[in-house]
Design goal:
Order of helices and strands: HEEEHEHHHEEEEEEEHHHHHHHH
Largest sheet: 4 strands, antiparallel
Structural class: alpha+beta
Strand order of the largest sheet: 5-8-9-10
Distance between the termini: 104 Å
Number of strands: 11
Number of helices: 13
Radius of gyration: 33 Å
Shape: elongated
Length: 339
């Protein structure tokens, strides 16, 4: 497992991923005395971390801690990392995290799994095949009770995390989900039943919106462009920093926000984005969360986009005016013939 940090959640994730990689959990798990695993390593007051015990209980594993300053156990935990550092990391470089993971997998297969071990005189992969039946079967779902945060998905299918917003499938709009940081660089979203719903690269900064088009497919199938959630998503994709104005508009038109949203999106096809953002700012400043107010600001202070202006037909040329005088005797003849 590769991670950008050594936080408690990342350590637990690495342990959990090893169980799923091997298809089962061992009966015992030997660990060192890191604070994420052991809160007190003294002999008289020894105590495992409570959340680590929850993880072990989920996978039915008996944890066992190294004795301090005892190389017979401490070395077993640390020696593999020293070997990786010397034989794989030093002197190498990688283009990306994915490239590093692929190279590490090749190294583990060729240099570790298949190489005959000096103590057992067997290749680790061959020894593992003998021990595979002894593994404890895995539970139905992953363990999500450690370093996870619960969030309610908004009706525009977005969930907030660290000042940014990320999309989830439309079926979970308005529902509670679990969030967890994975490998220090990914946001993983689970349902209440521990089902994996979405994964996103964590964004730096604030106010960013990460949307996956497939998450909105259900809305398109059911309601098409009339859907309030889909319209909100379109608005935020175009104006990600104007969420406060959108929230005010939805609050003002709580019974039927779709119409005003469609009006705003129509205006966005006519006027430049900068003019619209200024109109949203003025609307929020005066607490006038209305598409009518925005349209009035744009018509008074903004000009249509050049492409729209060029597409506007030229004004019509007035036809020459001439006075026509009709002879009314013709109508008298028609009336007489009708009699």
């Amino acid at each position: 497992t590769v991670s950008f940090d050594e936080r408690q959640a990342s350590i637990y994730e690495a342990i959990e991923e090893s169980f799923w990689h091997f298809g089962g959990a061992p009966r015992e798990l030997l660990v060192d005395n890191a604070r994420a695993l052991v809160t007190d390593a003294s002999v008289s007051r020894f105590r495992f971390n409570d959340q680590f015990l929850e993880l072990c209980g989920h996978y039915r594993v008996q944890p066992r801690a190294c004795q301090p300053r005892r190389p017979q156990t401490k070395g077993k935990v640390e020696r593999p990392f020293a070997y990786l550092e010397e034989q794989f990391i030093k002197g190498n470089s990688w283009r990306s995290l994915e490239h590093f993971r692929a190279a590490l997998a090749d190294f583990e297969r060729d240099d570790l799994d298949l190489r005959v071990h000096g103590t057992t005189h067997e290749a680790p992969l061959a020894r593992f095949e003998q021990e595979r039946p002894l593994l404890t079967p895995l539970p139905e779902g992953r363990f999500v009770g450690v370093q996870t945060e619960s969030r309610k998905v908004s009706w525009d299918c977005l969930v907030a995390f660290r000042s940014n917003r990320y999309s989830v499938p439309a079926a979970y709009a308005g529902k509670m989900v679990w969030l967890r940081v994975s490998h220090g660089c990914r946001l993983v979203v689970f349902s209440s039943r521990r089902e994996l719903l979405a994964e996103h690269d964590l964004r730096q900064g604030k106010g960013q919106i990460v949307m996956v088009p497939e998450h909105y497919e259900l809305l398109r199938q059911r309601q098409g462009a009339r859907s309030y959630a889909l319209l909100s998503a379109h608005f935020l994709a175009r104006f990600p920093h104007d969420r406060p104005f959108l929230d005010g508009l939805i609050a003002q038109y709580s019974t039927s926000p779709s119409g005003p949203l469609r009006e705003l999106l129509a205006l966005s096809d006519i006027y430049p984005d900068a003019a619209l953002r200024e109109a949203f700012r003025l609307a929020s400043e005066h607490k006038r969360y209305s598409h009518v107010f925005v349209r009035g600001v744009l018509e008074h202070a903004a000009k249509p986009s050049p492409a729209i202006a060029e597409a506007t037909p030229p004004p019509r040329t007035a036809l020459p005016y001439g006075e026509v005088i009709s002879d009314l005797r013709r109508y008298q003849q028609i009336l007489e013939l009708g009699q």
